[in-house]
Specification:
Strand content: 15-25%
Order of helices and strands: HHEEHEEHHHEHEEHEEHEE
Number of helices: 9
Number of domains: 3
Structural class: alpha+beta
């Protein structure tokens, strides 16, 4: 058994036993105080005084009438006897039989009146009315043993109920540590509706995120290896050509080497940018006018794609919208989305950029008029190194992944959908 199991079991058991002991002590005091011999004797002495007053005031008839009044009320059978045991009253065969074969304890107290001094007031109590110490101790012992058994069973069931799901969580954690990242535990304890069930769901969420992260890292390594292999192979070929050919051919090969080295440097820079963004420790401390930022980005894009006869059409209903953001990351994400749209937009047409401002944030929509993306790939385009079969193979497939991570740092969202009439529409939402 686990240590937690024994802690829960023993502490609950001890607590319940302490409650039982305290209750037993109190009940013992109460029983002795209420039904003990001293209490009953004191009550009979009071009866004896009242009986003596009745006898002195009215004789035998008054005393017998008082006996009939007391008996039904207290469930105590009272008799008057002489010191030698002779029955005085009530004078009936039933009273005689009760004295000869009493069914309960008998207590006698002196009954002293002004007229007689040799009478006794005799009381036959119900069997349960007076409990002796020995009987009471035996009664308490039986109850205590029974309580130990019952509380032990209850605490055992409670301990198992609490520790069994924790043991399942421990097993699941061990399996994840062994590399079985698909392990989940909430389905095994979904019938519970308590904090342990909530913990299981959070555990599964954590496991899913770990699995996604590790899987993406593995894919990233595969993609990086693939992307680096091609330019390195071209570098090796160019170097070999430079060694074998004339100085003029060598110069061309060196230019090729320089180009491939630049591409490698750009690729490594993109990979490092994505890795830095995945740390999620970027500060949002810049007061930035989103309208001015978009106009600046669009001006740069118009200049960059002017030779291809591509432009950007910007629409907004605000002249200014200041928000607290990370200006560098937000610029990077919007630039990547806009450049991606311009890359696939046909010549002599414009990419539409729309800014909508609400009280709870802003929504930026970038729509191109290109071929769009297959519906099954609308989420995958934000994965690192993803390139659709419908797209050409320019770029490294990191731009939208970087944009998504930058938007995520702003606690926002980025989605893509095929627009009516053709083209891809990317929507960025940044909360206030």
């Amino acid at each position: 058994m686990s240590r937690l199991y024994w802690k829960i079991f023993l502490w609950f058991w001890l607590a319940m036993l302490l409650i039982i002991v305290a209750t037993a002590v109190y009940s013992s005091y109460f029983i002795h105080h209420r039904y003990g011999p001293m209490r009953v004797t004191a009550l009979l002495n009071m009866y004896a005084i009242t009986a003596a007053e009745a006898y002195d005031s009215g004789g035998d008839r008054a005393l017998e009438r008082w006996l009939r009044q007391v008996n039904p009320k207290e469930r105590i059978h009272l008799f008057v006897q002489s010191d030698n045991g002779q029955q005085i009253m009530p004078r009936s065969p039933r009273a005689l039989r009760m004295l000869e074969r009493p069914r309960g304890p008998i207590i006698r107290v002196p009954l002293q009146t002004k007229r007689v001094t040799n009478y006794q007031l005799v009381a036959i109590l119900p069997p349960h009315r007076m409990m002796t110490r020995k009987r009471h101790e035996s009664y308490i012992a039986v109850r205590f043993i029974f309580a130990i058994i019952i509380t032990g069973v209850i605490c055992y069931i409670l301990s198992v109920y609490l520790t069994r799901p924790l043991r399942k969580l421990k097993i699941a954690a061990s399996q994840i540590a062994e590399g079985k990242l698909s392990t989940r535990v909430s389905q095994q304890i979904q019938h519970r509706k308590d904090e342990i069930s909530d913990l299981a769901h959070e555990f599964d969420n954590m496991a899913e995120k770990i699995e996604t992260l590790v899987t993406s890292q593995k894919q990233l390594m595969e993609y990086v290896s693939h992307e680096l292999r091609s330019p390195l192979a071209r570098l090796q070929v160019s170097l070999e050509l430079a060694r074998r050919n004339s100085p003029q051919a060598a110069e061309s090969a060196l230019d090729r080497i320089e180009l491939e080295a630049t591409r490698l440097n750009d690729l490594i820079g993109e990979i490092l940018s994505l890795a830095n963004l995945q740390r999620m420790d970027q500060a949002l401390e810049d007061k930035q006018d989103i309208v001015a930022l978009l106009k600046d980005i669009i001006a740069d894009a118009d200049l960059e794609f002017a030779e291809q006869a591509k432009s950007v059409d910007f629409n907004t209903d605000r002249k200014q919208q200041v928000m607290t953001v990370n200006a560098r990351l937000l610029r990077r994400s919007i630039e990547n989305v806009l450049r991606n749209a311009l890359r696939y937009n046909p010549s002599n047409s414009a990419v539409n950029v729309t800014l909508r401002c609400q009280e709870d944030g802003v929504t930026i929509t970038v729509r191109d008029h290109g071929p769009g993306v297959a519906p099954a790939d609308l989420e995958a385009i934000f994965m690192p190194f993803y390139r659709s079969d419908q797209q050409d193979q320019t770029g490294y497939g990191l731009g939208l992944a970087i944009a998504k991570q930058a938007v995520k740092i702003h606690h926002g969202s980025i989605t893509a959908q095929n627009a009516d009439g053709g083209g891809l529409e990317v929507t960025i939402t940044i909360p206030q």
